[in-house]
Each structure stands twice: as C-alpha cells, then as structure tokens.
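REQUEST FORM: STRUCTURE PREDICTION
Request ID: SP-0412
Submitted by: Lab K.M.
Chain count: 1
Length (residues): 181
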Amino acid sequence: ILRAQAARENLSVGVNGKIPLYLIGQLQSNKINKVLPLANGIQSVDGIELAQKISARAQNLGLCTDVMLEVNVSGEATKSGCVPERAIDEALAISSLTALNLRGFMTLGARVDDEKIVRSGFAKLREIRDCVSEQLAQDYDEDSAKLELSMGMSGDFVWAIAEGSTMVRIGSAIFGPRAFV
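STATUS: Completed
RESULT:
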C-alpha cells in the first residue's frame, strides 16, 4: 500500500527513500536477504539467534539495519517474542552486533478487554527498556540509550501511549478491519 501511494506521489520508500519501511511480523531466516534491501528496520526480532543471522547478512550487503526486540509480555502462546526474563540479556547482546542498531522494543498487548492486564504488560516492557537504556548509557553514550517502545494497536494504543509507547501500529483504525480470506 505504501509503495503504491508513494509511487503516485512521486516519493521513494525503503532503505534510502524518504519514507522508512519497517517489517512487522515474524521473519523467517530464509527471507532475510529479501527483506534487508527493502526495509529500514525489523520490529520483530525475537532473540539473539535471529539477530545474528540478520547482522551477518546485513554486513555482507553493506547495511546497518534498525531492529527492535520483540518481547512476549503477555505470555500468550499465540504470540512471538522472547520471554521478559531474557529480554535484558538478549537486548544487550543484540546491541553489540556490528550491522544492527538496537532501536528499541516491541510487543503486542494481551488479547483481553481488561485495561489493567493490558497496561501491566506495557508497563513491564517500559521497565525492561529503561533497564537496558540505563545499561547502554553506562557502557556507551547517552544517544545510544534512547530506545523506542513499539506497543499499542488500534484497540489499545491509548493505554500503550499512557505507558510510554513511542510508536503505535493503528492500521485497522486507518484502513478498517482486515478481510481474512
């Protein structure tokens, strides 16, 4: 959709374009080479193993790619991401990879209507981000410690913003509900 709209408006998108493109969703290892030339960042890196593969391939292509560590704060089996207990170590390991830039953290809120439960997951991710930011500020410099929080979708973005989200994903609010075929 963005590519078609950008073409109509004579804008460039992707890695060197004016409109950045981010992959959101699971990335299979065999698709990394196809994604890297098109995406400015990947918001769904679930751990160090995938990050190492992305880094090696990005380095071979002469790229430095933004990544966000996906953390499954809800604990729901249907969701991807590392467990919160491993997130700090995983993020610090990812931050040391040469062809990657740890941009922050990403999560999906619990799939419930209970504000308290959803917000507690978002708050947990904020705490993880703050801990990693503090560690990176000590180890490197303050600029590398400014990590984003990508959390909140059309149904819960207000709660996510209240808990510190710096990026929200509100496709359904803009484009309407998905038509699953």
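NOTES: DSSP finds seven helices and six strands in the chain.
Reviewed by: T.R.
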